Batch of 2 targets.
Target 1
Amino acid sequence: MNEAFSYLSEMEAEKGNLIKGLQLIQTREGYVSDDAIRAVAAYFGTPEAEVEGVLTFYAQFKRVKPGKYKISVCDGTACHIKGATQIRAWVQAELGIGDGQTTEDGLFSLQTVACLGCCSLAPVMSINGTVYGKLDRKSLSRILNEYKAKG
Ligand code: FES
């Protein structure tokens, strides 16, 4: 087995553990890569196509490596009313990525999420768990530029 995924041996190599194995990989790596699929298929004795089928069926699994900075744009009710769609469009335009994608330099990934629990600050996004509220075009650009500068 690919050494990178040797921690799979923490669980029994039974087909019934396939989903648990994939969850373990996602927890450790943040996503399930092609290499991970091969390792899981080999370890659980399952065809790769079947592993891919499981990944497609369960929306919880990510196939794209998350960025260093994970941007979550809230599209809960309060944020939606206050312009979440526009906020997401601006982020996409600034970074050149769509929802669920990662920039080529690996710096940013974008996802849309439901309520982040601070609706009074709508519209809201978080970057690696830090919440930014009352966003507008200007503050959004400033925040993204700060992260770009950090690299
Ligand atoms: S709806 Fe966005 S924080 Fe609650």
Target 2
Amino acid sequence: MERIDALKPIVPAADAEVEAAKKLLAAAQAMVTAETGRLNGEVARVRAELEAVEKELAADVREKYERVVKHKGADGMAPVEGQSCGGCFQQITGNMLSDLMLGRVVMCRSCGRLLYVPESSTPA
Ligand SMILES: [Zn+2]
């Protein structure tokens, strides 16, 4: 009995601690909710930016294509032959080749033709 009596004063203090912890938890949850809202907004903003950049990129590629074709006609594009431009036979760089493999638009630095990888060639 003596032990229980000794513990009695501790219980209200523990209750208060639980209350304080609950308040902290609620505050933390509110912060998380607010942060989630902020991050969702950020994601939407970045997505919109990406879309804008994609549109710009497409326009840029189209412009390059149109400019080259306007000047060179059907000769404005050249297949990559081995590691060379099929139009002027200048060697292309490894970076250009890997860009091509990634589906990027690459222009020959020497003759300005748009390069493409012929379907028959197999990527290394
Ligand atoms: Zn070339």
